[in-house]
Amino acid sequence: MLPIDPNNETAYSFVVFGASGRLALSKIFPALWQLYRDNRLPQGTKIFTFCRTHLEVGTYRIKCVPYMGLSKDRDQIKYNSFWSNVHCCQGMYDSPQDYAELTASMVRQETRHNMSLANRIFYLALPPIVFDHVTLNISRKCLSMTGWNRVIVEKPFARNELTYKPYQTQLCQTFKESQIYMIDHYLSKQVIHNLFVLRFTNHIWSETWNNKHIAAVMISVKCEKPVQARADYFNQFGIIRDIMTNDMMQLLAMLTIEQPYSNYVEDMRDEKLKVLKQVLTLDISDVILGQYCNNGVETDPTKVGYTQHAYIPKESLTPTFAMVVLRIKSKRWNSVPFILRVGKALNETKTEVRVQYKAMECDRSENKQSIPNELVLRLSPREQLFMRMMLKRPGQELCLRETELNLMLRDRAVPDNYQSLLLDIFAGNQMLFMRTDEQCEIWRIFSPVLAFIDVERPKPLLYDFGSSGPMAAYEMAARNGFIFYQSDEWHARQGMANTSQNASKEAIKAESSRAQQATPSWMTPSAMGS
Ligand code: NDP
What we know:
single chain, alpha/beta, nine-stranded mixed beta sheet, six-stranded parallel beta sheet, 16 helices, globular
């Protein structure tokens, strides 16, 4: 990415509202510091905090230390100079006068550098309750007249379709769409960019990206940790609102859109909106909810059941796991199930998309099928992009084995999620940010099910802490045609019913029998000899 403002002609003010909170400390300031350290922030950037708590730069910088990733030998001088660009303002969110003082402080810094242009970014790291006051006061008191203004909003973007409407109206009355950045943490990854290149510039994938070839898609966000930070918020909103109705739906839209007319952001967003409009409203019969419980063996006091945490009400029915099956009514995607799976306190931490292709019938005479191709896009813990496919085993015999075609080249460091999103905002690149009408469609898809959960309070299925979630979810995925491979947790769970020794023997037997099954008869030595 080219440096922003290489000639240092413009002043940038970056205001963090709610700077006393967790998000500012643990994510925003570390990202700003790391960009500054690596000379990626525009040189004329000044950072302002605004909150009710009285903050002082000297003490605030100490509070930030654990999150900053500092290196003792390398960073000391630069770290000092970073903080010389930070200014703290105290204020009430509903006091216009306090916003006027913030603006005066910004103007002082902007004019000090004798720059004729001043751009301003307002990051709302705040709970939704103060959202209206803050957007209104920014628009009345804080906008720059000599440059652009941009506002960053954090999820939750309301609770449902009904509460989103006033949220959207308020946001769009005070800012234009081109000024609004609804931030989302998953999508800045290189792997998503690569998906686009893969799909739209390669014959293999552009021709097969449809229901003729693809059998099922699963998007997973699995987390080993239990609910800890922001437990109040989580308990009120639940796992579907926390992850599915924003991050995961953005992934789904990116996977399924038609090729945009051009590379312009609005063309891409129009295509995302189009495909979201084609997603059928979710039915409760396509939903499995779970809640983790004590697994009976764990001795760590933090690894208990959800309702056993001291900070969670004992009678809470909030789901900590959800699997839903979405369907898209379009020529391209009719009949392909899109399975979204998300959960806390699971057996592993990973975010990935698995696109499973239909099986090839390569042995028609005995009607055996080979193992289908699978494209895996892993976003975390490591970025990976690979294709599962079949090859011949080494040796004389013609016998097939599964292998992976690795498609990811990591030849340079990429900035982390927050850093690259902030850089996009400075550069005015909205490609990876949702437009407000996209979120509206997402609420349309989920609101009936969310209303059912809120009103009827169905009991979630219990699953053991550290397991892969309720078995019923995996049965639902299997019913929808999603195949779990040997190495996946599905098989591990099935194996757990046996002793561990038996399980590993079974696994080896299953692997060799699959390899044999997958070897078409026309490839066996006897067939070749005849
Ligand atoms: P906090 O709850 O820590 O709130 C941030 C600041 O907002 C507080 O320090 C406080 O500042 C002010 N505030 C809190 N409650 C109120 C209130 N009732 N009325 C007025 N001001 C209040 O939130 P986080 O920092 O954790 O997150 C900020 C936003 O980002 C939230 O919307 C959250 O949902 C979202 N988010 C957070 C993530 C995280 O990892 N923390 C992840 C994803 C989204 P003061 O009293 O000093 O004014």
